[in-house]
Amino acid sequence: MSGLKRLTSAAVVFVASVLLGNTASASPSITLSKKSGPPTSGILVSGRGFEPNVGVDVYFDTKDEVLVITNAKGEFDQAKINAPRSARPGKHWVTALERNNDKGAQEPFLVQTDWTEFDGPTGTRWNPYENVLGTNTVGALILKWRYTSGNQVFSSPAVVDGVLYVGSDDGNFYALNARTGSRLWIYSTGRYIDSSPAVADGKVYFGCYDGNVYALNARTGAKVWSYTTGGEVNSSPAFANGVVYVGSSDDNVYALNARTGAKLWSYKTGNHVYSSPAVENGVVYVGSWDFNFYALNASTGAELWRYATGTFVVSSPIIANGLVYLSSDSYLYALDASTGATVWSYTPGGNLGLALSSIAVADGVLYIGGLNDYDLFALDAHTGVLLWDSPTNASLPSAPVVANGVVYVGSDDVTQGDNLYAFDARTGARLWSYVTGIVFSSCAVANGVVYVGSEDQNIYAFGLSDSSQTTQLPAQRPDLKTLQLDFSLKVSRFTVP
To answer: Is the predicted pLDDT of residue 349 greater than 60, yes or no?
Structure first.
């Protein structure tokens, strides 16, 4: 009997050693909280299959960013790293490497500086993540491709996950390969599409002259839902917290469930709503042809305040620094976002003309194009003081956009002069220009490329030549044996699984 006990005991020890050996020799693996994002993205990294109670360094490409200690199971959770501000668009690598050997695991992370809707990724027509095109490189822009639709393109493009989305007055909505310009799919409405798209949660939203707001599957172009208003929808949708906000020429502002298209509420103004809503801190801001600008509760549609401008408001507002910026006729206004009180107003002697153009705000500076004297204006966003104005060849109905110190704006020059411009955001110096057709569309600046539509029926893409930049080249997958440890790192806190 004692011999049997010894045999059983030995078997238990053998099985335990095998199990422990399997745990120690399991292949490490890591998971990332997100697979893509812009530079500066925070990424949570979790690991399994490492040795128990050992140090693990977590890298973005070859930079050692954090040191964690595995638990008794060889696991760690939610080690936080960041994609560097300098990380160029394309594939990069996250690596977790045991400090005492070359045992580790890797996963790719795709850096993208997408332009998700009319107001851009920040809601102020500013892409702060762009790191390819700048004041030193924009002068070398060349035409990468153009795609010809069947009519003029007033819609401003959105660029998400390598796909460009835009509408045309030929009654079609297009999805194009953002790198090559080849068509991926097309959706026909049969009526003009001047509304600019918003892309979120795998769907693309836009309005149409047929009175509908559409939601399409962003990958396939299949219709998910449509909602019929009582008038043309030129307003560009804004997406926030699972809700699509949009105006209609039936005088209403609508809030629609982004998943189903069901109406959550509508608010009736006194005239057409061509302005595109902006949403911030639970408030919807939008202008109307009834000479008023409105602030509405985003959840209920209840009016919070209104501001009388004296003429109709077609342009779309921007919210930044606790202020709402809007243009109407020859005036720019900065209003307190909470109360609607005037903080400052500005008019350059009537030079703005009929303010169809919307505003861009970046780094404390406001930019808007004029219609009468053909200038691009830059003002201090806090005080309204004019910083500079730079001339072009014609009116600037296109809303300016800003990326990495450069302002891009389109012109309605009909004499075959320049139609697209790039200015130094700090000084107003002209850095680049190009002849297209008339440009009412606003640019989208994403992943080192400038995209814009034109009245000549084309969608254009401008970028740097392949020989002058390596934007689209993937980062090399690091060799685990060559990664350098940062011995100055202290152990980071992490969540035990």
So the answer is: no
